[in-house]
């Protein structure tokens, strides 16, 4: 299982993504949350990112600028704010008008309607599962689920969304899962038998879609330059 190969510090990054997403009121974990957790650590890869201007404060500011805080943030997460602003559309003003007209929970309801529903099964209506059997399945799934424990207290940040969740698991987006899966490729390329913070960072900065490229660009960081600097730092340390 992939998580069994994660170093303690890499596991801390994965755990802290949940803390950051929860604090910002986001109901999913994306690669941008992984990046925020990564740059906040005291690790060589994290230091390289900060030296190139990718600071925790800068990353968090960009995440909030791009997707906002709290409920409904995913509804605006794929929009290009700068492009829309160039034609006179202010996303923050749109959010404010929606909440003013339909109430502060309108975006949460819309987000749930768009993203929260289950896809209907192609096999027809789902049969009721006996309670004892359902409990057995849940126990088996829980036993297979990797247990990730943070090595440090939950991280702080610049923002705290109103009504942010205090606990509970937040699902990883497909892009976040893809970035985690790509860490295996990075570890194999370096002939490492574990997955560390360096592999997480290399996987993230290689992404060409999602918010991470936008965040890096806004902070003036070059992905190729970051990759070279990170690999050099770890080569010197080995």
From TrEMBL:
PROSITE patterns found in the cross-reference section: CLP_R
GO biological process: proteolysis
Classification via InterPro entries: Clp_N_dom_sf, Clp_R_N
Superkingdom of the organism of origin: Bacteria
Record Pfam families: Clp_N (PF02861)
Residues of the signal peptide: none
Keyword Membrane: no
Keywords annotated in UniProt: Hydrolase, Protease, Repeat
Keyword tRNA processing tagged: no
Domain Clp R: 3-237
Gene3D superfamilies: Clp, N-terminal domain (1.10.1780.10)
Gene Ontology molecular-function annotations: peptidase activity
Protein name as catalogued: Clp protease N-terminal domain-containing protein
Organism encoding this protein: Streptomyces aureus
